[in-house]
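Annex B, item 7. Sequence and structure tokens for protein A, then protein B.
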Amino acid sequence: MKFLLSSLAFLSCCLTAWAQTSLTVGPPRVYFVADAGVGQSQTVDVTNPSKDYTLELAVSLEDWKYSLYGDNLLHPPGTLPTSCSSWLSVSEPFFSLGPGETKQLNLNMQVPPHIQFNDSVPVHTAMLFVTQLNPKQGLDKDGANIRIALRSGIKIYHRFTARNNADIEVTNLRYHQQDSVGNFVEITYEVPGNIWVDGNFIVEFINQENGKKTKLEQQGFYCLPLDKRKHYIEIPADLEPGDYIASVIANYGEHDRIKVAELEFKHEHTTL
């Protein structure tokens, strides 16, 4: 999908029909930095890549937060303490897009005059969805008739000015050996800062017997202040048995801040 963790899309049935009709919305994240009583505007582009189908579209807003494992949890607008759904308006809540057409929407935020920074709610969020209102006829993988409807979403963040402390703390590392799913390292971390954080985990396994190093591909993460999270690093199936040190580097924020944690563990092969 276009936007990885920040984009949602659904079909009324099967993915075989996805290529026939599509919808893109960007950027995947929109950031507002404003204090009480201030209004700001950003732009959102909506594109219909189809060559032969006009899309009838509607814009809506919902609340969201991350789960313990980094999944997006949606809630009705205005129900979460962090919600800024009611502060937002869009220039065209209903519109049509012809084949190949792109429309730029103005997304406006008006921060209420009584809203002030609060340590328990340091940022505000919402999710903007663009939903197709005219489902298209298609066929599933078995040739049955289906109706296809598209929905794509982007995340909206708000923070106050002079608040720019991106921080995380790795609180625990654990080695897990599971017969059914293989071996992995569990990273537990918290977010004590006052703004959202995005970054990468850089993981390296060092064999204490021969000094061999196995470096994994970086794994990205996104989180909100006050989150408590778990992230799982799969241990390569071909990693030889032995005594290891796992070195975990969290690289995050605009200024590439770094936190390091290490774990000693004994690795054994798992039969799947």
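Protein B:
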Amino acid sequence: MAWILLFVAGIFEVVWAYSMKQSEGFTRLWPSIVTGVMMVASFACLSVAMRSIPLGTAYTIWTGIGAVGAFVVGVVLLGEQLNPTRILAAVLIVCGLVLMKLSSQ
């Protein structure tokens, strides 16, 4: 259950990062509200997951999901640049996440 919560926390992190971008510096009401709610939900799920997952592992995986997820959202929804170097960087992050998960068993 902790790993599921950690994954959900990472997804919430992606949502709040995207909604923060959409808030235009917190000048738009609804995206700003979504950002705040998703931040609280993400931290809540992360804190519960960290009851049984070591800090270093949980935090690394949470931020990794957020980083790769935000990268994908940026490319798919916001038309951000996609090039081999950025793809390689995302792949390396995912490899690091897999290694972190495997090392915590």
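Comment on protein B: Residues 55-78 form the longest helix (24 residues).
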